[in-house]
């Protein structure tokens, strides 16, 4: 059976995350430089090789001071750990269009397994005859599992930054 390769369409994709700030609001961020590929034997993606890399220094939250703090040794330490990587270990069908994507997430010098829920949007031809595929991924990780431990206590109780990070990823791929 032949393998089909898919490459990311970065203009129609977004790698986003949300973290609770001061225990009651969310701060959103995203990576502006990233790459992802899929090598699949068929269109249902089971047994696919799925890989992602993102440039840590491309994190943006809409606030320059916060972004600078995130890139510092307090958080991502972008100088020492310039990249985030994900490599799938399994992609299993749960229901029609719904999958579980499990893989190794390498971040801040630590690699751990993560599980994401994947909504497979299927295949579609764009107006120029290119075959496209869409995946929407959601999941949660604990940033402390990757050594991202910085925080500050609030005088009212609680902490400034939540340990839980919610991932919200929209991907569009182009068949090669």
From TrEMBL:
Residue intervals of the Lipid/polyisoprenoid-binding YceI-like domain: 5-174
InterPro entries: Lipid/polyisoprenoid-bd_YceI, TTHA0802/YceI-like_sf
Superkingdom, taxonomy of origin: Bacteria
Protein name: Polyisoprenoid-binding protein YceI
């Amino acid at each position: 059976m032949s393998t089909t390769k898919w490459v990311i369409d970065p203009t129609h994709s977004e790698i986003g995350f949300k973290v609770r700030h001061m225990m009651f609001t969310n701060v959103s961020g995203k990576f502006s430089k990233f790459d992802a590929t899929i090598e699949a034997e068929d269109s249902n993606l089971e047994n696919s090789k799925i890989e992602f890399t993102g440039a840590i220094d491309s994190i943006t939250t809409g606030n320059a001071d916060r972004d600078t703090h995130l890139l510092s040794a307090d958080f991502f330490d972008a100088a020492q750990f310039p990249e985030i990587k994900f490599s799938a270990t399994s992609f299993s069908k749960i229901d029609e269009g719904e999958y579980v994507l499990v893989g190794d997430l390498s971040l801040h010098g630590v690699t751990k397994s993560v599980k994401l829920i994947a909504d497979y949007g299927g295949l579609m031809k764009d107006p120029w005859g290119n075959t496209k595929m869409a995946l929407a991924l959601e999941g949660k990780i604990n940033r402390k599992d990757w050594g991202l431990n910085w925080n500050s206590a609030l005088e009212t109780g609680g902490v400034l930054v939540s340990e839980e990070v919610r991932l919200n990823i929209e991907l569009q791929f182009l068949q090669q």
